[in-house]
Fold:
Amino acid sequence: MRARLFVFSIFVLLSIFLSLCTGSEGFSFHALINSLAVNGVDREIFINLRIPRVVVGFCVGGILSVAGAILQALFKNPLVEPYTLGISGGAALGVVTGMVLNLSFVLWLPITGFLGAVFVMVAVYFFSLKRGFIALDKMLLIGVMTSFISSSLVLFVEALVSPSKLSSIVYWMMGSLQWISKEGLDVIAASSLVILFVSFGLSVSLNAISFGEEDAIHLGIDAEKVKRMVFLVASLATGLSVAFVGVIGFVGLVVPHFFRITFGRDYRLLIPLSFFGGGSFLILCDAVARSIVSPIELPVGVITGIIGGTTFIYVLSKNRGMV
Structure:
């Protein structure tokens, strides 16, 4: 276990280093050294562009991965991820609506996206209630259907807008870390810490629920309260990430499942590992997106989609049944 944790720590540090060294011109260790040693353009780029980008990528990847970990524990299904519940679709619809309305204030688009996520979150929650209890199977199906409806509404809006606005909407839908503002960075960083600590606080209850809800109730755990908290935390994490950086899928599926296989399913360990692993995974994908066809920058959602989709097919074909 110690050896694995040591390797993981090296992976996290290496991911941060590689991401900081990667820019529009490709990988440049020399530019990184110059930015640290000499005042100039390289230093301004490093401080004002690269560091904020790495921070927001790490935070977004972390909260998406944590959200995936706690959802998989609750649903006892390794194929569940944050976007499954349809919250991302609501956030995407909110942001697209803000774009169509030409909202220019720096936080207006994230606000409209977050409001869309909250609306869908409330709707899915209340439609999933059965005699005052949350029916998880119903919630999952309603979330999937809500996601399809939201995607259809986004396509409807895209069909009505001008070609210039359509291109910006399509690019944003693929996910990118380059549009984050200082205000957005502050919100994401603070929210990610709150989500991490709240999720970690649920780890003992999730350990019990992952083995069976009835056993957890016999141990004195309020299963319904844990369900509500998990749904709220996962929804907030998904809504925030989509509202600020667009749709970046599969991080919440790939990372928690990998660490569950590698380190076991003790959520006291799995949740912090998922946060740091998810953050490292996303900033590495972003580094690849910036350098694979440099100087053209691909949306990071394209890279995570390729890797995540491949992993999804592998997991589905193996049907390990692990949570």
In short: Strands lie at 22-23, 26-27, 129-130, 133-134. DSSP finds 14 helices and four strands in the chain. Residues 55-318 form a domain with the ABC transporter involved in vitamin B12 uptake, BtuC fold (CATH 1.10.3470.10).
